[in-house]
Amino acid sequence: MCSPVGHTLGGFIAGAPPAFNWRWLLFILLAANAPDLDFLAGALVGEFNRYHHMASHSIMASAIFMLLVFIVLRLNNSQSFKAVWLGGLAYNAHLLLDCITIDSSAPRGMQLFWPFTEQYFIAPFTFFTNIQHGGRNDTVWEALGPIFSMHNLGAVFLELAVLLPIFLFMQWRKRT
Ligand SMILES: [Zn+2]
Prior knowledge:
By secondary structure, this protein is mainly alpha-helical. It has helices at about 5-15, 20-35, 40-45, 60-75, 80-100, 140-145, 150-175.
């Protein structure tokens, strides 16, 4: 997995919002990091990584996310549904980034095609460094040590070095 920093940048690159007001910023931030809310489900049962890279990291989950955004917009009588597509792009950018990130803990990859198969998938080549977040049965407390490590700091720097210039270039292109 990438860090929230990499995922947020990926979300803003793929689902570039039409404006940088607080609503769009919050929405893309949420969409880009939504798959990793599976950590919260794990924390609730006392095993931080229990559900990580499972259903929330599937194309089906991204479709459900888009449907939920659509329903919320409809209920608010919105005239624009741009958020459905941009949110979907940000969500899928998360899946793509995780697919091309080293995964050193078994099972490697994620359940991309859940619920049709529970098999884990990862790209044949990986580029980004994995963010360490403890073992499968670790509690939230036990996972904190690996999360705040120098290894993870290096991983975040690599994400910034690759994704920040792309993001800044896109902003520059928009203005010229
Ligand atoms: Zn993830």
